[in-house]
């Protein structure tokens, strides 16, 4: 049977057939010419898709009462586009490669089918599902979601991540968990250390944020893990992008996968406002203090991206000296301190989180209001990944980007990537002469004034509410 691709494009229900040379095998929505030639699983998929078309809610997906109650209790009412496309196919037993941007509901898209398929805890030895995450934070976040969605089941889970006690994890494995949520390195450590540990009982395996798994150098470990798995498993791969190395891995490790792509044209949420400010490097700290202290409401949560841990430490002291209480996370940070800082931010005891890109991987803040690029990202995809943390699940948000003269080429690359025009901002003399109105241009990106935050704070206050 040919693999299928569902291409979300600009609308949720638009499904177009693409040429077989698109990088994956044969693509296009699975079509059946003759009902009599369908297998039982294909008939089930067709019925589920027809049923889905009649109702946009989880009620139409045939979930068991315990799982459905958990979904409702979590607050989910209507499936997101990625959930509508993937859930019927996963429940029908197909391998799936799903691509969608950050904040699209990917975690629930694979957790709900796993809960539905496992149903209840069993005394049979060995985990039945394996979820691989690139970072410990994402693994813990996934486990938290699993417990919330599965609160009305008796299914057990364990998180195997680096930085935590191996002995404590041994004890949890001895309790016969149904689901293992792990980082590749720690899972391989257990496979080598625990005598008799096997993954042959695993029926469902998920590669979460698969592109990140490869970017962080786990490719060889993932291949080794595949060799420990049963060939009859169902494999799900969720990713924001599909680089060639990952596509090759998917072809080798998945059986006739359905490739589902959403938001391939709309790379940034339409509910996200983009604002760019040009500064000299030495002006950035003062501009950040002004932005956080004066312009962004104190009840909004903001994440600030910087390039190195030295920037984190410096800006922490700068903001702290101005009475701004913040949380920080960077790569070399002690794990206990890291947990404390993230927990404070999640609990809204602090509303500002200062991070590096590497440290931020896997940190999921569902209701984030603002993203600040203190150091402009060198690639468009990194920009999209950063700002994709705001304006999620129908909420609005703002991304503020500080740009130096050296970073202007990166900004131009971004606008080419997004197919957005760039307009020059008015000069300082023009603003002094004509006021703030020159700053605003209809629904387009532009370069705001250099030193804008210090010289024209009133204009910057208004600029904060424009969709550029």
Description:
The chain is of the alpha/beta class and 468 residues long. The chain folds into two domains: 5-261, Rossmann fold, CATH 3.40.50.300; 272-463, 3-Layer(aba) Sandwich (Rossmann fold). The protein has 19 helices and 16 strands. The strands form three sheets. An eight-stranded parallel beta sheet has the order 1-8-2-7-6-3-5-4, sandwiched between helices. A six-stranded parallel beta sheet has the order 9-14-13-10-12-11, sandwiched between helices. Strand 11, helix 13 and strand 12 (352-356) form a beta-alpha-beta unit. The chain starts with a strand and ends in a 5-residue tail after the last helix. The relative contact order is 0.11.
Question: Summarize this, please?
Answer:
By secondary structure, this protein is of the alpha/beta class. It is 40% helix and 15% strand.
